[in-house]
Amino acid sequence: MRISGKKGILSLLLSLVLVLELILSSGQIVLASSENHQDVYTVKILNEQGESVPGVKVVYDLYTDATGSDKKQETVDAVTGDDGVLEIAAISEAQQADGEAYYKIVEASGEGYDSYNDTEMQTITSENVLTEREITLKKTVQKQKVTLTGLVTNVQNSQPLENVFVSDGDAGSTITGSDGTYSIELIEGNSYELTFSLDGYDEVSKTVTVAAPYVCDVQMNLSAVYDSTFRFNDATPKSVVYGENENKFINVASSEMADSKITYAIVKEKDLEGSDTNVDVADINSQTGEVTIKRSGMITVEATRAADITYAETKITYELSVVKADQTGFKFEEEVPQDKKYYPADGTYSNAAVGGQSTGKITYKVIEGTGIAEVNTDTGEVTFKKLGTVGIQATKAGDDKYNEITATYRITAIKKGQTRFKFDTSVPSDLHYGENNNKYLNEAKGGNGTGEITYSVEDGKDIVSVDPKTGEVSFIKAGQATIKATKTEDENSFYETATATYTLNIAKGTQSTLHFVRQNPEITWDANNTSFENALQGGSGNGELSYEIIEQKRLNGEKADTSVATIDKSTGKLTILSTGTVKVKGTKAGDESYKEATAEYELTIKKADQSIAFQETTKTVVYGTKEYTSVMANTGTGTGEIQICG
Fold first, then answer.
1. Of the candidates 632, 601, 635, which has an alpha carbon nearest to the alpha carbon of residue 615?
2. How many Å apart are CA 270 and CA 392, to the nearest integer?
3. DSSP labels, 353-421
4. CA-based angle 88:92:94, to the nearest 5?
5. pLDDT tens figures, 31-47
């Protein structure tokens, strides 16, 4: 379009004015008025009548996200103007920079008003950043002081009590007069914990809510007077052992005051495990306090000093633990038996245990060489099954007076052992899972006789398996395992079975290469398609896949927190929020056999092209005719400003 002359230029300017008025009337462009505080985020403070409140102190914190875990800047305080409005440019700037801004008002306080604070995080977006927030302050209601009165009397005779100390729990206190009355100033409507104390009387606490008729009467009890000098000779006696001192124990109670009758009783009995069911640990002489012990356990002894004209009845206690005694003299008839030559026709040996004090039963068991011999648990008779040494233990059970006791002996059925039976490599070097097709061979050799050699996994059956005939080890997963070789005794041999072991350490292997299908891809921003996926392939083992964004930048290279994209940590799917670059890290977790593996890629989201056009690209008008306005057919995409030039 060609415009010439001053009138043509004037006509064009008038056309532009008409276009702007049309756009403004349709709501497409909103001009901010600094006079109306619409160019920045504003907060307006009102009273309960809807009137502006000037001079209100507003303290706020600006945060980096909705969690409120990190502040974006130090705490800021400001004061509202004459119109009750406070402009907070920092909130507007944060919203424009990050898309959203987060803040809380810590305090909004003015003279004569109750203070206000936000209990929830305020989130500011492009939709509400220019909306004026209104906060209403409530007038402070002043509570008045009133006088609370009352009468304090003796509960036994209803006589008034003088000099009773009365406290409201804060800073206020008073004392009663000779007539037992008191008065104290308190705030009406508040609740107080009043305490009343006087020497020789039990302290009284009473919760009072101050209201008409403003009276609180109290009665106090005389304190019971106990004999503080009444005590046992030994307040905490040590444990005693059953059987000591002919099972007698005495711990006398006495008082420094005038003689008074003292009696004793056992008030609690328990066994050593804490049970009080059908337990009879001891008896006591009620006059002398002498304890006669009957078994092990725990008792509580109570001494009672009878009341007199000066003191109330006074009780004291002590606890006594009676532990079991050790048995003595328990042994085998033959304490050190001679080696026994093994003959199948005469393979038994008898050696009984005797002695001890308990009523418990004597039982026998093999504690060494369980494959060599068996023992009769009731009689102690040993039956050999092959050559070797066997250890026998006899146990006399404890009872409620004595501890369990044991005795042992060893006896050997003689036969030679094999020599020099061992593995080719006694201490193998560490291996890694995946090496040598997860196989390892280490043979055992030597020994005596013609017995068969077999292999087994002694420890770590979940780590490896072994061929019982060849000794070849197969790895199941990383870890440590012990392999055992056994050479059995052959028929009519003079040699017993021999064994050898070695320990194999299998470290975790390295996974095969982990990689993303697309390395450093580039895409163009598309508001209708904001997702992006890039498959992670390779690796080894059963570890789970996980994804994370490790860096975000804008296209100009500036760092971005979370404004470019977000990621699904389990699928790796990206949700694109804006243009920029996103560096993604994929991880395949390690498992029982492989170490962790990772891979990365960087995605670039480029800006998309946009197009705009007039409805009429060419128009001829006659000079002097009605002014012409050209309407936009397409205003493009994005938030960029449209400028018309001619």
1. 632
2. 36
3. EE--SS-PPEEEEEEE-TTTEEE-TTT--EEE-SSEEEEEEEEE---SSB--EEEEEEEEE--BPP-S-
4. 110
5. 233 344 457 999 999 99
Percent with pLDDT over 90 in the chain: 61
Say if residue 526 is in the same domain as residue 588.
yes
**Domain ends where: 452, 479, 507?**
507
CA separation (Å) from 331 to 46, 336, 339, 395, 402?
97, 11, 19, 10, 16
Chain-centroid distance, C-alpha 643: 60
226 belongs to a structural domain = no
Tracing tokens 């087994």 back to the chain, one arrives at 456
H helix runs in 136-262, sequence order: none
Q: Which of 312, 316, 315, 314 lies closest to 225, judged by CA?
A: 312
Comparing C-alpha atoms, which of 225, 190, 220 is closest to residue 205?
220
Q: State which residues form the domain around 450.
A: 422-507
Nearest to 564 by CA among 607, 528, 521, 601: 607
Question: Are both 429 and 499 inside the same structural domain?
Answer: yes
Do 208 and 215 touch, CB atoms closer than 8 A?
no
Strand partners, 204: 196
- 403 and 426 belong to one structural domain: no
Contact 502, 427 (CB under 8 A): yes
Strands 498-507 and 431-432: parallel
Among 224, 314, 330, 318, smallest CA distance to 267 is for 318
Strand, helix or coil for residue 347: coil
Least confident of 301-310, 439-448, 582-591, 633-642: 633-642
Domain count along the chain: 7
Model confidence over 540-557: pLDDT tens digits? 999 999 999 999 999 888
**109 belongs to a structural domain:** yes
User: Are the beta carbons of 372 and 355 closer than 8 angstroms?
Assistant: no
What tokens were used for 503? 């320990």
The verdict on whether omega for the bond into residue 213 sits within 30 degrees of 0, i.e. cis, is yes
Rounded to whole angstroms, how far apart are CA atoms 451 and 572?
61
In tens, the pLDDT along 386-445 reads 777 899 999 999 999 999 999 999 988 766 667 889 999 999 999 999 889 999 999 999
pTM above 0.85, yes or no: no
Assign 27 a pLDDT band (cuts: 50, 70, 90).
Answer: very low
Q: Note whether 621 and 571 are same-domain residues.
A: no
Asked if the structure places residue 132 within a domain, the reply is yes
Q: What is the 3-state secondary structure (H, E, C) of 265-316?
A: EEEEEECCCCCCCCCCCEEECCCCCEEEECCCEEEEEEEEECCCCCCCCEEE
- CB-based contacts of 479, cutoff 8 Å, min separation 6: 460, 462, 463, 506, 592
